[in-house]
TrEMBL record:
Compartments reported by the entry: Cell membrane
Organism field: Rhizobium lusitanum
Matching InterPro entries: MFS, MFS_dom, MFS_Efflux_Transporters, MFS_trans_sf, Sugar_transporter_CS, Tet-R_TetA/multi-R_MdtG-like
PROSITE patterns membership: MFS, SUGAR_TRANSPORT_1
Region of interest (Disordered), ranges: 1-23
Protein name: Multidrug resistance protein
Function: Resistance to tetracycline by an active tetracycline efflux. This is an energy-dependent process that decreases the accumulation of the antibiotic in whole cells. This protein functions as a metal-tetracycline/H(+) antiporter.
Amino acid sequence: MTGNHSIETSRTQSTGETDKIPAAAPPRLTTLILLSALAVLPVNMILPSLPNIAAEFRADRALVNLSVAGYAIVTALIALIAGAASDRYGRRPVVLIAVSIFIAASAGCALAGNIGVFLLCRAMQASIDACFSIALVIIRETSSDRKAASRFGYLAMGWAVAPMLGPMLGGLLDELFGWRANFFILAILGAAIFALSMRDVRETALRSTRPRGNYLAAYGTLASSARFWAHAACMACSMGTFYIFLGGAPLVVAKSLGASGAELGFYMGMTPAGFILGSYLTGRYAARYALSTTVIVARLLTCLGLLIGFALSMLGTTHILAFFGPCMFIGIGNGLTMPAANASVLSIRADLSGTAMGLATAMRIAGGALIASAAGLLLDRSGATYVLLGTMLASASLALLAALGAAVIERRITKLVSA
């Protein structure tokens, strides 16, 4: 028990106070927003081009779809590796290497002559995902806890807008110039970001604080932190709620609500719009409140919205807004949750910030996907609206419980340190 307390309080003891800011010249927030936006733009920018890619390579559609599903798996692995590497070798080198690999991989996709080379280069493209996690770490190392959460909110807005615009840009480029134009543009954007990073991204990790043990020891240290697990579980369940929505909403709308494809596309956008709103609110107000308070309020909002939607569904309300209106609170809640929870994760161990962010990111992606997969088994048997809303409410409730658990742990740590 004593060992756990020493792990949990090391961040506070090493700095004297959790809000003390390390002496470092931070990059401009605009630079970090652009890095995070580029990290997510390739995820779905190529979606409109998948049929043309399959046709040109004469490949099965399921094989071509690996460029999307496989990409997500590789991003989780990249997060684990890049986070730990940035602790050991510094933030700036990892950012520059990740962007360099991305540029080469994007060019490789554009010039690929067969499906094997294309998929290999597409997997290498996922290296850019390291930039989002490291951008969060850089902000944390140059800001106080609450100020970091506020800046995370603005960063998350760029992270949310990019994938919304990606399919539109990708579809336009495909129609005008062919699918390879998507990857040439990504390579050009990568080169521009590389030049900007060379000039603006400075090293923020002090050599004296870099870990000297092996990687497994660093992960073991974090795995023994109850505070880390609570925040990671909260983010995984929050993301799981969103993944359940993405997978289940099209089925429910088509089967129960009878909406057209155009209506579905419009109303599905309400939840990402809610995420942008929640991220903006975090950027605007998070510095005024405790991080645990922000996360709990966020999870309560999500649960309340879904509870209203569940009640309306049980009462037989079939209007499309009675479903998508409450689901908008998934986005609002996640937009508030992710910046504050990430800031809390990064404050656990100053010398393991990158490792913590990488591990939390991998757990968020894998945990969210696992929750959504389990929920999909239930939704396949019943396309009823109330089943989908009830499933999302269950996942959101687990996130709320994790947030409450994190708040209790942090309160105990604060009392221990002040004693």
